[in-house]
Amino acid sequence: MIRWHLSPGLWRRTGAGVVGPTGVVTVRADGEVALALTDGWESPCYGRRRRLPVFEIRCGAATRSVVSAIRFGGDPA
């Protein structure tokens, strides 16, 4: 499994990744991958935690190569 902790905000799934207020993350693979947008946690300082969006991919057994692209900037939609 590969996970990206995303910046706080409203993110949504696309066919090949996620798009949100601070950028776009897309994934290409040479095999089967399952994409998910879930909730996770971060700890910005000792004794505090907050929820944040997490983009996850799970690779199939035959997948050998995964390429991710991250474009910073606002949601293009």
Provide an overview of this structure.
This protein is an all-beta fold. Helix content is 0%, strand content 57%. The chain has a four-stranded antiparallel beta sheet, with no helix packed on it. A three-stranded antiparallel beta sheet has the order 1-6-5, with no helix packed on it. It is globular and about 40 Å long. The termini are far apart. The mean pLDDT is 92.
Short description:
Helices cover 0% and strands 57% of the residues. It has 77 residues and is an all-beta fold.
Radius of gyration: 13 Å
- What is the number of beta strands? 7
Q: Tell me, what's the shape?
A: globular
* Distance separating the two termini: 28 Å
**How would a textbook summarize the main sheet?**
4 strands, antiparallel
Keywords:
77 residues; mainly beta; 7 strands; 0% helix
Describe the secondary structure blueprint for this structure.
Elements: E1 2-5, E2 12-13, E3 17-20, E4 23-29, E5 33-42, E6 50-59, E7 66-72
Antiparallel strand pairs: 1-6, 2-3, 3-4, 4-7, 5-6
